[in-house]
Amino acid sequence: MPDEDLTRAWDDLIGRHTAYPAAAATGRGVLARWAEPHRRYHTLSHLRGVLTRVEEMADHAVDLDAVRLAAWYHDAVYQGQPDDEERSAQLAEADLAALGVDPSLVAEVARLVRLTISHQPGPGDRSGEVLSDADLAALGVEPRRYRANSAAIRAEYAHVPDNDFRARRARVVRTLLSGPAVFYTPLARGRWESQARANLIDELRALEQ
Asked: What contacts 105, CB < 8 A, 6 or more positions away?
């Protein structure tokens, strides 16, 4: 069965928080969103990558299952629009509430999804740090793969004129480079910080040409 690993991961995760029979179908619905044909970077591969990175940083999180669920939902809505993250958070709220998940967990999942708008968790927000770092870990891949990922993201925004896209993307890159570090957790800083900063600097130079 395609994506059987993700199906099992969802079932194991959601099964700790609800016994509703609809839980399995909800997970299949989320997976279908990640498999939409217009996606080029924010695909099932990205979901797998983020979930893997969350597990690598599991000890840093305060509420690990909240982070896991937020990883599932953080780009569940992806149309290349400014409200994608907000709509993803709203989807998480609706889906999880319909399954009878504890309201405090639902609220935390939605908060974490909305955090991916800025990738700037507040002081002491360890769960937010894990999700942010897991989502941005791909910034620290080797340069050729980074350029391929950037091209895939551009393809997802084919509806945006090139000058507009370059200006918007440059603002995002500058923001990522403006802080003391791209990443927050010790593991992420040690593993990906140096390469991520080099990749971002190279991308910014290309965008400003």
From this structure: 17, 63, 65, 66, 69, 96
CB 127 within 8 A of CB 67: yes
Q: At what angle do helices 4-15 and 64-73 cross, to 10 degrees?
A: 130
Residue-level pLDDT at 3: 86
Torsion of CA 181, 130, 36, 159, to 10 degrees: -30
Does the pLDDT value for residue 146 go beyond 80? yes
Whether 73 contacts 149, CB under 8 Å: no
- For residue 2, the model assigns a pLDDT of 63
For residue range 88-133, what is the model confidence (pLDDT) as tens digits?
999 999 999 999 999 999 999 999 999 999 999 999 999 999 999 9
* Element of type H or E holding 82: none
Q: What is the pLDDT of residue 45?
A: 97
Containing 60, the helix (H) or strand (E) segment is: none
What three-state secondary structure class fits 114? helix
- Write the CATH number for 42: 1.10.3210.10
Q: What one-character-per-residue DSSP string does 148-196 give?
A: HHHHHHHHHTTTS-HHHHHHHHHHHHHHHHHSS-S--SHHHHHHHHHHH
Determine the structural domain holding residue 199 and report its residue range. 4-207
